[in-house]
Write a structure and sequence with these properties.
The structure holds 2 protein chains of 2 kinds.
Chain A: H1 2-54, E1 56-58, E2 64-68, H2 71-77, E3 78-80, E4 87-89, H3 91-123, H4 127-138, H5 145-156, H6 161-168, H7 182-206, H8 210-218, H9 223-251, H10 255-260, H11 268-276, H12 282-314
Antiparallel strand pairs in A: 1-2, 3-4
Helix pairs in contact in A: 1-12, 2-12, 3-7, 3-9, 5-7, 7-9, 8-9, 9-12, 11-12
Chain B: H1 2-24, E1 26-32, H2 38-48, E2 51-57, H3 60-69, E3 76-77, H4 84-89, E4 113-114, E5 117-118, E6 124-136, H5 148-151, E7 161-163, H6 167-177, H7 187-201, E8 204-206, H8 212-216, E9 222-226, H9 227-236, E10 240-243, E11 249-258, H10 265-275, H11 278-288, E12 321-323, H12 329-343
Parallel strand pairs in B: 1-2, 1-3, 7-8, 7-9, 11-12
Antiparallel strand pairs in B: 3-11, 4-5, 6-9, 6-10, 6-11
Helix pairs in contact in B: 7-12
Classes of the chains: A mainly alpha, B alpha/beta.
């Protein structure tokens, strides 16, 4: 009888606990709801509008007509030849897209080449100096992107600083054409996105236990082997994070290619702008934007998979 | 309690009062960048007590899409002639009847019954000019009055050419270079236009706006440009010259219009009337270096404008200019495809 009488009370206690837990969960949801609503409204909302627009018909002078159409999506990948109406792959879009990927990869490699040694340098300074160095890295962020891009232009233009110095030193006798080239775009983007590589790499090098490096030397590792087998695997997460932070915005870059690239060869961001501006084809612009997002997403998932695979290797 | 309520109410009244006062004396102008003479605005503010703010745009399409999107807060826009019918048909402009305004008598008769705004019921002339070619004559001595400068560039200029990314103008020039009419949908001709543009692009350095100082500093030697902008370049570098392509060049006029959803309508109308005054029109021209279409403004213009070959079209080229209205949507779509092919 005792068990019979005690078990209902114990159950009630569990129930109370369960109720309390439920209430707690509910409270958490309630407390989080303002943030969740804002995120849904202002992140998912505009995105849904873009998706919606990509399935509508282009208006005659910009904007959209509310008639369902897949023409926008169709012309992302395929087109009828302007002159003989044969169906073909939209090679203009593909080659612009390929140029964006190429330049973004180049930018990522360049920022890594300059950023990793910089991060290593900062991480190996005495603790008291590190904040100063980090502070210096972030200083450019105080200035508007456009202003920084124009500063780069002053460096590389025909009568710019670099050409003037080289001319003065008699290294060259004609100014080198750097403005309005792919080099200019890569140079500009590397400069602009460099801090985004340095900071995450620094964060992981800073955590690196240098006793492991010493240990590897004790075990007869040479410098290269130590770097490849000890340092690299440990700072890899930072490098991957840095690469993502550089690659993703490079892919959609708009200002830098426009100012430094001279607008002769479009990047993906400029192609999208063309459709919303002079092209007056908003559905195509919307479809191109979504395509870009999907591609960035695929790249991110790939990165996640690559870094995840590494963890298994260590085990 | 009563006292508190009173304070609150008077505070509210104060806010309302100041808001009304602000609305009375304000004017928000949406105009092309580097195009509005600050002295003109100072003069307008001094004469009327209206406070003016100016916002820039870089192309008709930017202006059109921003205004169509709504919530812009602008009262005045300065679209190019080809876009005026679009603005009107989209219901974006207010019929302010400039033809009944006091200063309308000054508008040159050439610019009253224009194709894009018969009798001037919506718009007031701001400036007009042409789109032709620019050449630095230090580097090229040949004939510059031809679109071959950018369509089939001479060796001396290759690699130093900039073409303004104004699709309508460039397509128009290229089509006329091949003997066609702007806005044509003749695909045989357009194929020739596309292929020759793509081939010519190999020799271009850039397709960019805002190149005044790049030409002045000789980063760029030739290209497609506007006459007044070229005039300003020449003032900084005497070797820069403007060419009127004999195959045909583009004429245009930008006009001041009041937006349908303008908040400061009276102020905007006052501005329309203001810019039709010859002395004020001369101020507009003195800055951006284009003609203005207002009779009697010449005496107030800077001396160097009265003889400038960029402004006073030489008689032998006068017949080659052409006003082009906006192309129909299907032709525009075709041109966008060619334009994308060009920039891929």
């Amino acid at each position: 009888m005792t068990t019979a009488s005690s078990s209902p009370t114990r159950l009630t206690a569990e129930e109370v606990e369960e109720l309390a837990r439920k209430k707690d969960t509910k409270n958490r949801w309630l407390l989080a709801s303002p943030a969740l609503i804002i995120i849904t409204l202002f992140a998912a909302g505009p995105l849904l509008i873009v998706v919606l627009y990509s399935f509508l018909t282009a208006g005659d002078y910009g904007n959209v007509k509310w008639i369902f159409s897949t023409k926008g999506w169709f012309s992302v990948f395929l087109q009828y030849d302007i002159f003989d109406d044969t169906l073909q792959i939209a090679d203009a879009h593909l080659s612009i897209f390929w140029r964006s990927i190429k330049l973004s990869l180049l930018t990522t490699v360049l920022t890594a080449a300059f950023g990793i040694p910089t991060a290593y340098f900062i991480a190996t300074r005495p603790l008291s100096q590190r904040n100063l160095w980090l502070f210096l890295i972030t200083v450019p962020f105080w200035t508007n992107l456009l202003v920084r891009t124009i500063a780069v232009m002053e460096l590389i233009r025909g009568e710019g600083v670099i050409n003037n110095v080289l001319l003065w030193a008699n290294v060259i006798d004609q100014p080198i054409q750097m403005m309005f080239t792919d080099f200019a775009i890569a140079f500009g983007m590397t400069y602009v996105y460099l801090p985004l590589m340095v900071l995450p790499v620094y964060a992981s090098i800073e955590k690196l236990d240098f006793r492991l490096v010493e240990a590897s030397y004790d075990l007869y590792a040479n410098r290269w082997k130590c770097f490849r087998r000890v340092i690299l695997p440990l700072v890899k997460p930072g490098m991957i994070a840095g690469s993502i932070l550089v690659f993703v915005p490079s892919l959609g870059a708009y200002i830098t290619p426009r100012v430094l690239g001279g607008g002769k060869n479009l990047m993906f961001g400029n192609l999208i702008e063309l459709q919303f501006g002079q092209g007056r084809n908003w559905p195509l612009g919307a479809a191109l934007s979504i395509s870009l997002m999907v591609l960035v997403m695929v790249a991110l998932l790939y990165y996640v998979k690559v870094s995840g695979g590494d963890d298994n290797e260590h085990r | 309690m009563k006292h508190k309520l009173l304070t609150a109410l008077s505070g509210l009244a104060l806010v309302a009062g100041s808001a009304a006062a602000q609305a009375e004396g304000q004017l928000n102008i949406f105009n092309w960048g580097n195009y509005t003479n600050p002295d003109l605005i100072t003069k307008f503010e001094a004469e009327t007590g209206i406070k003016v703010t100016i916002t820039d745009y870089d192309s008709n399409d930017t202006a059109l899409s921003k205004i169509k999107a709504g919530g812009h807060g602008f009262d005045i826009v300065v679209p190019t002639h080809g876009y005026v019918p679009i603005f009107i048909s989209e219901g974006l402009l207010m019929e302010t009847r400039p033809d009944q305004m006091e200063n309308f008598k000054n508008v040159s008769s050439t610019w009253v019954d224009v194709e894009w705004d018969q009798g001037r019921r919506y718009t007031v002339p701001w400036q007009w000019g042409s789109t032709g070619v620019v050449v630095n004559t230090k580097y090229y001595k040949g004939d510059i009055n031809t679109s071959a400068i950018f369509m089939d560039p001479p060796d001396e200029l290759k690699g130093k050419i900039n073409v303004v990314p104004e699709m309508g103008d460039v397509m128009g020039l290229a089509i006329m270079y091949h003997g066609g009419e702007p806005c044509t949908d003749d695909k045989v001709l357009l194929k020739k236009v596309r292929d020759s543009l793509v081939a010519a692009k190999e020799h271009w350095l850039g397709m960019d706006y805002g190149n005044l100082e790049k030409f002045a500093k000789e980063d760029l030697w030739a290209g497609v440009n506007w006459n007044g902008s070229t005039f300003r370049m020449r003032l900084q570098n005497e070797n820069v010259a403007y060419g009127y392509p004999k195959e045909g060049y583009i004429l245009w006029m930008d006009s001041v219009a009041v937006l349908a959803d303008a908040k400061n309508v009276d102020e905007a109308k006052a501005f329309q009337n203001f810019v039709m005054d010859p002395e004020n029109a001369a101020l507009i021209s003195a800055f951006a270096r284009y003609s203005n279409g207002i009779d009697g403004s010449e005496p107030f213009m800077p001396e160097d404008m009265k003889t400038a070959p960029e402004v006073v079209v030489p008689a032998e080229h006068a017949g080659n200019g052409k006003f082009v209205l906006a192309c129909p949507p299907d032709v525009q779509a075709l041109y966008t495809r060619i334009w994308t092919d060009l920039q891929k």
